[in-house]
Amino acid sequence: MRRVRKGRLAGHESVMPGVSAAPGVAAGVAVVLDRATGGRSGVVPRAKRAAEAERAGEALRLAAAELEKITADLRRDGRREEADIVETGVLMAMDPILTARVESLVVESGLPADYALRAGADQTAAELAEVADATLAQRADDVRSVGRRAAAHAQGTAREATEGVLVATSLGPADVAQWAPKAKGIALAAGGITAHAAIVARSLGLPMVIGVGPDLLQIADGEEVVVDGDRGVVVRRPDPERIALARNDAGRRRAAREIAIARRLEPAQTKDGRTIRVLANASTHAELREAAQQGAEGIGLLRSELLFLEAAAWPGFDEQVGVLRPVLSHLGGRAATVRLFDFGGDKTPPFLRDTTARGVEILLDAPGALRSQLAAIMAAGADAEMRILVPMVTGAGQLQAVRRALDAVLDGRRRPQLGAMIETPEAALDANAIAKHADFLSIGTNDLTQLVLGLDREQSKTAPVTDVRVLRLIDATARAARSAGILVDVCGEAASDPKAMPILVGLGIDELSVAAARVGQVRQWVRELDFADCRRRSDELLGQSGHASRQRV
Ligand code: PEP
Ligand code: MG
Question: For 287, which of 49, 324, 516, 539 could close a Cys bridge (C-beta 3.0–4.6 Å)?
Fold first, then answer.
């Protein structure tokens, strides 16, 4: 998630900053699903209110029927879980409380049908967003999307999916199912990076920018725009050069995906025979499905905190099992690496608002929550090759404390592997001691690079992981893992960066864990590498002799 500085204007282009929610760049005509101000305004005369309320009711029935059709289509395509999610929209559209609320807004307050439908859905969404249950809170976007769909029927502006860049305030799962197959990219005025739309966008490899603000809705339907999900901006009146770059990017991603799927069963092995395990950074079933299609050998990083960013209290055992099981149950015996909550920084839920701590430090201060999360992971991932990853470790003592908590909840079950994220300079410098207490290490190059070089992770547009100060720490970590006889993985963005990845392989990294949409590409890059060349290149960068490199792996 990256934020770009506000208010930049380049030439006659207008660059609107937001937050990057899915990588890639796309150009296309805007398909605007929400208007800044839509429909008829003004108060409906009393004599016409009953008929207007009837129109609003009919619009809700039409929306429900449409959602039922989308549900049936998804089921026919074997997309059962998405069908279940969209089906809840049918229930929302037929919810008597929403119907009564809309009717009262028309009859009592004289709002036109489309306004009342949006306002009624917004009120219900606001109530949902306040409840303690994070899963229910996430349904707030879905109910807004039901209101918008019904309002479009009331306004007579409901439309078939067309190709282009989707522009909306937020998107619910039904919108995504209906529009994603034709979408080139997505730009949202609001939205969260963990919302259903963002997850689907990442898994499909659709560039997406969220949080652009209400100005986004000034974009006219049919206007040419560029969504740059790498830099987190939406560009109006893009230069021809920018459009050409975006088109190349889209074509390249499409072709790479097709090749990746065709070659998914081939091993990710360098030309001179070094095998690298390529895993996926995935927190949802949609991401996992895309990753598996592209040949992922399991999950290398499930960011559990992303599933509970809106939580009003520590998530309970049942709630966590409910969210994790649908993902982990699809893994069979493959690797399932679940990271403990990495709350803090830009991932702080409301109930931890006042904390200045981060990751494992917060968990060790809340032993009940730690035990409950460990127990939930064990319960949800019974059949997989379970690996539990501890975030933001700064010393071996923290890992030992988590291991004691894990032992206390094992209850006779097979012990999962326990790994440490190496993403702070302290951890990298103490990697030998940490490795002695770990079953594997996973290097978080995103935080490590930022902390070592003193960059602002949310503002910085570059992540120079190949800076020698960062590489030395990665090298030290890889060596520590080897002397302890354990595997070392990289799960930060560097693992799928074409410049950094060969260097990481040269340093002896065993596993790369990358975004679902990039799994196939990374597997292909590995096949094109020569391990000996990678080692030479990483040695050069570290300023080491050939002798040291022979000792390395
Ligand atoms: C990292 O820091 O590289 C990492 C993988 O963790 P996150 O991006 O979730 O902070
Ligand atoms: Mg991190």
Answer: 516
Render pLDDT for 319-343 as a digit per residue (tens, 0 to 9).
999 889 888 988 888 999 999 999 9
Q: What is the pLDDT of residue 133?
A: 62
> Cα–Cα distances in Å, from 548 out to 475, 535, 536, 551?
12, 10, 10, 5
Percent of the chain with pLDDT over 70: 90
Separation of CA 456 and ligand 2 centre (Å):
13
What is the spatial distance between Cα 162 and Cα 30, in angstroms, rounded to a whole number? 10
CA–CA distance from 17 to each of 187, 189, 522 (Å)?
A: 11, 10, 29
Question: What are the pLDDT digits (tens) for 137-185?
Answer: 667 778 888 998 999 899 887 777 788 999 988 887 678 778 877 899 9
> Residue 413 corresponds to which amino acid?
R
Residue type, 133: D
Ligand 1 atom nearest to 281, measured from its CA = 5
Give the residue whose CA is nearest to atom 4 of ligand 1.
Answer: 444
- Answer for the pair 138, 132: CB distance below 8 angstroms, yes or no: no
3-state secondary structure of 119: helix
| CB distance 229 to 237 below 8 Å | no
Between the two ends of the chain, the Cα-to-Cα distance in Å is 34
Ligand 1 neighbours by CB, cut-off 6 Å? 301, 303, 342, 423, 444-447, 491-492
Confidence band (pLDDT; 50, 70, 90) for 193? low
Mean predicted confidence (pLDDT) in 96-122: 93
Residues annotated as part of the active site: 196, 491
Q: Whose CA is nearest to atom 1 of ligand 1?
A: 444
